[in-house]
């Protein structure tokens, strides 16, 4: 028997609920799975499901599906729940008396179900073999186009030589915004450079570069080759199963009515059905984005889907109204849930899609006294989490396959940044090393490896939390004597543990 039960399944609406119910009712479970009242619901009425395994005082949360197109996260949570409940492999030594693991399997059901319905509409007739090939072709074309973008970024960087990194990043971003809905070629690059390059533009350099890499071809920024298999999609790919689905369809019709976004984006739908991006949906980024829109008019997402993120749509913007900020119901539910959990939450993992990154570093107020141990706690958990992933890769492939930690940005742009600034032990994990949301990460052996590596990381992080428990409740004062010698005085933070959270 295989150690873990992991199959590369895309869980559509029906399969998602069937799987959850099968996990909960499995008579072979070693640890019982408790279904709780939903933490809230989306504006279409989809419940935000909540389950737990274990009933210890140390609460740890796993949430996936904030971005609807990052479907690997939802699959991961379902696999984790099933294998943990069965006590498979390393989960055999799980301690339900110490830990309560919370699962929020899908924070953005509207975006997730839209993406998976759209995928199914195109893929349902395919045999298992054809599905594998379909995912692989998608991934390969995605890679190819990503490499093309990187090459164009490189020529921009070479032409605007000798500038600092943040300036270069900004130039690259402005370039892709400037070619929104256009095809890119020599002319577009030269015109852009004339406005931004501090020196005379070397036109022949751009020409030689272009001919060498792209010949006579132009690069379409609006229609991507990797999205072609989905170009015939319509909103009718959403079945009218119930009232929730009918509202979802209506909202999608509204978003696509202005023809600002191609229909293929139904299969790559990040936002909720109101067109709000749940990570961008925070008051800090709302302010930043509004200032940028004032300056630049339209703001585009990354060049792999070069559509406006300053408008309600599949990429999603910061708030339903561009005038007044408001939280999306899915985020309100999450913030409420975390508030209720309070200090009993020792770690929170917000699972996203691709890139193999762990966003870790907390915001750190240098002058704040006394200081708590958040910084140390975060880095210890992160280090062990990454070690867990690496051990699995080394064991299975014989080569070192690194995941990376991302340090925090200089300002809060995502909801995840906001949570990290508020709580210790909050992480955003980009689960898969492989790119190409939504289906790129579903190619074997990457899929199974991603699951197993993150299982290992899960076990490691529980061990670390257990070691660090006393530190969560302590803070320290730093004092210097006249000779500059440092004294640390450790104090109690008097954490109020809410032990009775679980009904
Ligand atoms: Zn994401």
Written account of the structure:
- By secondary structure, the protein is α/β, with parallel strands linked by helices.
- The chain has 13 helices and 13 strands.
- The model is unreliable at 496-503 (pLDDT under 50).
- Helix 4 (128-159) runs antiparallel to helix 7 (203-214).
- It has a domain at 13-114 and 329-475: Zn peptidases (Aminopeptidase).
- Zinc ion binds next to strand 7.
Short structural description:
The protein has helices spanning 13-24, 72-86, 109-123, 128-159, 165-178, 186-196, 203-214, 243-257, 283-296, 329-341, 374-397, 415-422, 446-472, and strands at 33-36, 50-53, 58-64, 99-104, 183-184, 219-220, 345-354, 357-359, 371-372, 404-406, 426-432, 474-480, 486-492.
Write the layout of secondary structure elements.
Layout: H1 13-24, E1 33-36, E2 50-53, E3 58-64, H2 72-86, E4 99-104, H3 109-123, H4 128-159, H5 165-178, E5 183-184, H6 186-196, H7 203-214, E6 219-220, H8 243-257, H9 283-296, H10 329-341, E7 345-354, E8 357-359, E9 371-372, H11 374-397, E10 404-406, H12 415-422, E11 426-432, H13 446-472, E12 474-480, E13 486-492
Parallel strand pairs: 3-4, 3-7, 7-11, 8-10
Antiparallel strand pairs: 1-2, 2-4, 5-6, 8-11, 9-12, 12-13
Helix pairs in contact: 1-2, 4-7, 11-13
The structure holds zinc ion.
């Amino acid at each position: 028997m295989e150690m873990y039960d992991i199959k590369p399944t895309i869980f559509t609406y029906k399969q998602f609920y069937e799987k959850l119910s099968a996990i909960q009712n499995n008579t072979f479970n070693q640890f019982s799975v408790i279904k709780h009242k939903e933490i809230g619901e989306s504006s279409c009425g989809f419940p935000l499901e909540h389950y737990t395994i274990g009933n210890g005082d140390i609460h740890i949360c796993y949430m996936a599906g904030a971005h609807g197109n990052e479907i690997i996260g939802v699959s991961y949570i379902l696999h984790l729940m099933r294998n943990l409940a069965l006590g498979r492999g390393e989960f055999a030594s799980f301690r339900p008396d110490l830990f309560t693991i919370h699962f929020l399997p899908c924070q953005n059901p509207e975006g997730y179900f839209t993406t998976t319905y759209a995928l199914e509409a195109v893929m349902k007739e395919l045999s298992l073999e054809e599905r594998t090939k379909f995912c692989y072709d998608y991934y390969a074309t995605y890679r190819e186009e990503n490499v093309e973008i990187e090459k164009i970024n490189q020529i921009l960087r070479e032409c605007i030589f000798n500038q600092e990194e943040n300036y270069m990043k900004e130039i690259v971003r402005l370039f892709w915004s400037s070619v929104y809905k256009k095809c890119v070629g020599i002319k577009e690059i030269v015109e852009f450079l004339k406005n931004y390059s501090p020196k005379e533009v070397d036109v022949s350099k751009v020409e030689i570069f272009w001919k060498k890499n792209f010949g006579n071809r132009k690069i379409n920024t609006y229609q991507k080759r990797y999205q072609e298999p989905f170009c015939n999609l319509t909103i009718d790919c959403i079945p009218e199963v119930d009232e929730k689905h009918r509202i979802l369809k209506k909202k999608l019709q509204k978003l696509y009515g202005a023809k600002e976004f191609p229909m293929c984006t139904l299969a790559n739908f990040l936002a909720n059905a109101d067109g709000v991006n749940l990570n961008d949906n925070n008051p800090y980024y709302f302010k930043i984005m509004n200032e940028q829109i004032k300056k630049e008019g339209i703001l585009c997402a990354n060049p792999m889907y070069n559509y406006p993120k300053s408008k309600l749509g599949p990429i999603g913007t910061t708030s339903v109204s561009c005038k007044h900020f408001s939280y999306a119901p899915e985020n309100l539910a999450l913030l409420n849930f975390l508030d209720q959990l309070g200090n009993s939450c020792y770690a929170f993992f917000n699972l996203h899609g691709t890139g193999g990154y762990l966003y870790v570093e907390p915001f750190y107020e240098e002058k704040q006294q006394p200081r708590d141990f958040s910084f140390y706690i975060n880095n210890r958990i992160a280090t062990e989490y990454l070690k867990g992933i690496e051990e699995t890769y080394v064991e299975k492939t014989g080569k070192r396959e690194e995941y990376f930690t991302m340090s925090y940005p200089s300002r809060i742009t995502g909801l995840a940044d906001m949570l990290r600034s508020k709580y210790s032990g909050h992480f955003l994990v980009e689960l898969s090393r492989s790119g190409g949301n939504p289906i790129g990460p579903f190619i074997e052996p990457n899929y199974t490896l991603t699951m197993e590596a993150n299982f290992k990381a899960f076990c490691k992080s529980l061990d670390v939390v257990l070691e660090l428990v006393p530190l969560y409740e302590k803070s320290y004062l730093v004092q210097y004597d006249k000779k500059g010698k440092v004294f640390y005085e450790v104090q109690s933070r008097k954490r109020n543990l809410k032990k009775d959270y679980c009904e």
